[in-house]
Amino acid sequence: MEVSQYRFCIPFGLISCTFVLEIAYQNNLVYKIHYVQGGENFSFVLKDDFAKSVFREFAEYFMGKRKNFSFQIALCGDEENVQGTSFQKKVWKELLTIPYGSSISYKELACRIDNPKAIRAVGMACHTNPFSIVVPCHRVLASTGKLQGYAGGIDIKQALLNLEKTIKDTI
């Protein structure tokens, strides 16, 4: 399994975030995308052309030029190699149906997977999502509309939502 990292900055609205994303991949299939904590003293590592193309797509997304990613994630075809319960995988697949620039509540997500009482379990599945941003758990909010937990931090969640809303509103 190859691992590459790259630092991004999202300068939208009142919140400006800098963070490092790391991808784990093999044979042009992404198995994990996650935030690296403590990326302040980081120098990026792009191991090959595939990693460069993946991070180029992320850069396009952050510049508002891309709404969908074209690279393959293991969840969409090599599911047996993705760590997670069948419930978590069901939640992650449902997250893929939330349109760009939109949001839903944890409760609505639980209802969509025919398990309306599993609101907290849905929240935990979002928290353990192995495909940050691509599987858009940042689009899930509390029923009140309040931002709640995000693996990359609330500031990044807010910045991603601001970015998508800004781009969606200009179309």
Task: Describe the 3D structure.
- The protein has helices at 49-62, 86-95, 106-112, 119-127, 154-169, and strands at 2-12, 15-26, 29-36, 72-73, 104-105, 140-141.
- The strands form two sheets. It has a four-stranded mixed beta sheet. The protein has a two-stranded parallel ribbon with strand order 5-6.
- The model has no long low-confidence stretch (mean pLDDT 86).
- A hairpin with a 2-residue loop joins strand 2 (15-26) and strand 3.
- It is globular.
- Helix 2 crosses helix 4 (119-127) and helix 3 (106-112) crosses helix 4.
- The chain contains five helices and six strands.
- The protein is of the alpha/beta class.
- 33% of the residues lie in helices and 22% in strands.
User: What oligomerization state is this entry in?
Assistant: single chain
Runs with pLDDT <50, length 5+?
none
Sheet with most strands: 4 strands, mixed
Query: SSE string, helix = H, strand = E?
Result: EEEHEHEHHEH
The structure class reads alpha/beta
What is the overall number of helices?
Answer: 5
Beta-strand content estimate: 15-25%
How many E strands? 6
- Helix percentage range: 25-40%
Strand order of the biggest β-sheet: 1-2-3-4
Question: What does the secondary structure layout of this molecule look like, with pairings?
Answer:
Layout: E1 2-12, E2 15-26, E3 29-36, H1 49-62, E4 72-73, H2 86-95, E5 104-105, H3 106-112, H4 119-127, E6 140-141, H5 154-169
Parallel strand pairs: 3-4, 5-6
Antiparallel strand pairs: 1-2, 2-3
Helix pairs in contact: 2-4, 3-4
